[in-house]
UniProtKB/TrEMBL annotation:
Transmembrane segments annotated in the record for this chain: none
Protein species of origin: marine metagenome
Protein name as catalogued: Type IX secretion system protein PorV domain-containing protein
Occurrences of domain Type IX secretion system protein PorV (ranges): 25-224
One Pfam match: PorV
Amino acid sequence: MSYKKSIFSLLLFSQIIMAQGEAGSLFLAINPGARANGMGEAQIGIANDAYATYYNPAGLSNLSNKHFSFMHTSYLPNLVDDMAYDFLTFAMPLKENSAIGGHFTYLNLGDQISTDDNGNELGSFSSYMYALNVSYSQKVDENSSWGVNGKYFYQELADLSNVDAATGSVAVDVGYFRHNAMNNPNLTMGAVLTNLGPGVSFGDGEEDPLPTRLGFGVGLSMLEGAGNLALDLNYEVNDQAMVTNLGFEYFLVENFALRAGFMNDPSGELSYTTLGIGARLDPVGFDVSYVMGGDLDPHSNMVRFSLSGSF
């Protein structure tokens, strides 16, 4: 194990376990999907694929077909070489203008070395986190819908200072979506409140709140339907900061899209540009995205791959 990786692992665990007045369970706030990432992770006001189970469950009832997708990425490759983030999602329309869906999230933090107080190696261990989510959406009228998520998540971390390193809890999300916003047939909008639930504790007496967000997004179909512009504003309740996501997608031909986006998070002092492409050969689609951050940005050089389908 490299020195850099050891330091990062310690900081990561310390932030999650020992943070005071800041959110824990931060893996719940990792935005999935290569298409979404290519558009700067702006999806609340679009929510028109299986990733609506994460970004805005209210969009699910607008889907006309069954959708599924799987995404994989090597997480924070500039810092470590064996962290992996995987996301599997599906959505299925039902009768009476409703839909169900769900997703499974898995973050593998890789292998770490356990040492005693003198720095002697005692062996290796692995840490991981996962979340299981169930979604439901119902149309209110021709243009409006609501949605809800229920999720269970679990974290298995390092044993630091004899603190219980495993914990599980539950949370909910609620969302709203509207077509024909402001009487404009090309404009959509959405709102979502995510990760509402009790705080988590690893047995050290300190309880960390969940990464609760209040988000608002708009989507604009333009260029005779060949382009999509999206803007999200996410207020981080615990950090009292606003995260901005901006993205654009353009279809060169019907089944091939180019994407670009921008994300700015002042609370985490993060700001990066994203690029992406997408290709589809019915019923299967493939998307890839790339993060262009600064030299000190841990998200730099992250590549996401998504394989999707509808039927």
